Amino acid sequence: MNDRPDRPDQRAKIDGGIPPRQPVAANASMSLIRGTEQAERTRQEIALSAFPETRRQILGFLKRDGAADTERLAQLTGITVSGARQHLAALERDGLVVHRVERRGAGRPRHSYALTTAGDALFPRHYGALTNELLAYVEDEDPELVARIFARRGQRRLEGALERTAGHAFPERVAIVATILDEDGYLADFTEEADGTFVITEHNCAVLSVALRYSHACSSELDFLQRTLPDAEVTRIAHRINGAHVCAYRVAPNVLTGQSHPSES
Hey, which CATH number is domain 126-257, 1.20.120, 3.30.1380, 3.40.50, 3.30.300? Predict the structure, then answer.
């Protein structure tokens, strides 16, 4: 399904009645992508800067060395062993480090600390830039292959979602779909409206830098919702690419619309 149809009336329906922006020029699009990547780097820097300096140092040492015991970290940060234990206990409570007990001879066991996945994620990532670069190479070789790659990803997501929603009543399936989107990084939730429809809202775009360059990312998202909820009409009512601060979808069960199949809009 194509969520960016050619007719103005179809575009208005998809984007909640707000006329879409004109296509962004190539250099402006690249500027948006760079801005998104810079914003991600800034977000990670802010996340680290929120910690006290000693905890930032501990996280940095563990990132560089892989693992270290309490005594070593106390030495590296210039604090007492007792102070290091307090900082490490706080980081462990936050789920950012984990320890294991190491026994060396007859002495007292030592605690060796390492970053968890959450702790490691505080440091810079450039997945969006790498993905766009790789997709650009693929597009150079075979433009149609990019569409097929997104289609395969969409099919994989669809199969998993259908397995999880099978046998559930419609409202439960909407809730499960919102949970799946949330697990995928979209910070998603849903509300049930007074007229019996639902609104699924994505407060974060997990693939924004890719979506700014490849429309397949957005069209595949709408297609995923339509195929996961085939007994409903799913309409995009807000779109970050068109200037909204979220992406949102109105989900109307066919029992309300009188339709027997999902919208082909």
Answer: 3.30.1380
Number of H helices, E strands in the chain: 12, 7
212 and 219 in contact (C-beta within 8 Å)?
no
**Across the strands, what pairs with 252?**
233
Range list of H helices, 66-199: 70-77, 81-93, 117-120, 127-141, 143-165, 170-181
Distance CA 240, CA 32 (A): 12
Sheet holding 110-115, edge to edge: 68-69, 110-115, 97-102
Question: Where do the structural domains in the chain lie, given as residue ranges?
Answer: 44-120, 126-257
The 10 Å Cβ neighbour count of residue 247 is 26
Beta carbons of 15 and 8 less than 8 angstroms apart: no
- The overall pTM is greater than 0.70: no
Which amino acid would we find at residue 96?
L
Residues whose CB falls within 8 Å of the CB of residue 195, separated by 6 or more in sequence, listed in order? 256
Please write the tens of the pLDDT for every residue from 15-63.
Answer: 443 333 334 334 444 454 455 555 555 555 557 778 899 999 999 999 8
